[in-house]
Model the fold of this input.
Amino acid sequence: VLSGLGELHLRVALEKLENRFRIAADARRPRVAFRETITQQAEGHYRLKKQTGGAGQFAEVFLRIEPLPRGSGFEFASEVFGGAIPTQFIPACEKGVLDALASGPLGGYAVEDLRVVVHDGKSHAVDSKDIAFRTAAKMAFRDAFGRARPMLLEPIVTLEITAPEAHVGDITADLKTRRGRVLGVDTLASGMAGVHAQIPLAELGNYSGALRGMTSGAGSFVTEPSHYDFVPPQVQRRLTADRAADAEA
Done:
């Protein structure tokens, strides 16, 4: 893995690898770590019944998923009463839900900020096993997820730009086209200015070159992770379509 100070720095390093050492490096843009979440409560259900001549598999799970505030992560609870799902199979249900959280239905991203409550089900004295309840819980979660108004979350970063004051107008206008939000502008010494903004990480893919072009090479920037926020619906549609196209390729 090769890292550098920016896109230009990396491009020069790759050219040296190829020209001097005859090494053809595999270079690609880093993937943005999107997340998936839900925005409303929903119920899910799945019944697993397999009979192949020998020992069968049986499990039935009813669960509920509820949205939590940003940054809450994941919570799991059982409200099963009367032995509808024997106690020894509840941990398998949680494992099945965790399996589903690892790769969400929208784009294969991790799912977070929700509570899952298993509240009913059925078992079989012979055919019920851990793997059966793990599978049933995973599928019941997916059943509920589609009804819970799922949405993508994207990482937002704090962006600190230092550039000549004469270029501030171009910089702030460009940030708005990238879905950025300007928080403030400071006047610095020697005709320089500091621009403070928040912007989706997905919009910074070519920012190093863009800032260099706007400021004739006199601008610089640093970023710091801030938080996750909802992806606008039109952007979510494009991202999920791109992800589906990549999967089919």
Remarks:
- The first strand starts at residue 35 and ends at 37.
- The domain at 155-233 is CATH 3.30.70.240 (Alpha-Beta Plaits).
- The chain is about 30% helix and 30% strand.
